[in-house]
Amino acid sequence: MYSKIIVVLAIIAAVSAQSHYGHQQNYHHEEEHYAPAHYEYHYDVHDDHTGDVHGQQESRKDHTTQGEYYLIDADGHKRTVKYHVEGKSGFIAEVHREPIKGYQAPQQHYQPQYHHQAPAHQNYHH
Question: What is d(CA 7, CA 14) in angstroms, rounded to the nearest whole number?
């Protein structure tokens, strides 16, 4: 009779330990919490020397992001991209291109490089 009680107690202890271990594992699991995201920024670049003209503005509040960026393509068209993201919807963009009246690409000024010739070799007679 004692052996049956010991076996039953051993089974109860094993089940209790497994159950307790499973609860301990879940007890220590913590979910990561993030503060709500909120930001705004913008910038513009206009360099007449290199012809680099571009800019961007963007804002985000919680899971909604919206923005726009633009640049001047080499062919003189202004490309504007408006975009937004709602939650996990992905990046959704609309692209517009329009010619810029009177646009002239910056001219690369050629400056010749002058190279000095090495002096002619002299033959020495011994």
Answer: 11
pLDDT per residue over 89-104, tens digit each?
A: 899 999 999 998 877 7
d(CA 14, CA 33) in angstroms, rounded, equals 35
pTM of the model: 0.55
Q: Which amino acid is at 1?
A: M
Pairing assessment for the beta strands 92-99 and 52-61 based on DSSP bridges: unpaired
Q: In what order do the strands lie in the sheet with 52-61?
A: 38-47, 52-61, 64-72, 77-86, 92-99
**Secondary structure letter of residue 78 according to DSSP:** E
Class of residue 65 by CB neighbours under 10 A (exposed 0-12, middle 13-18, buried 19+): middle
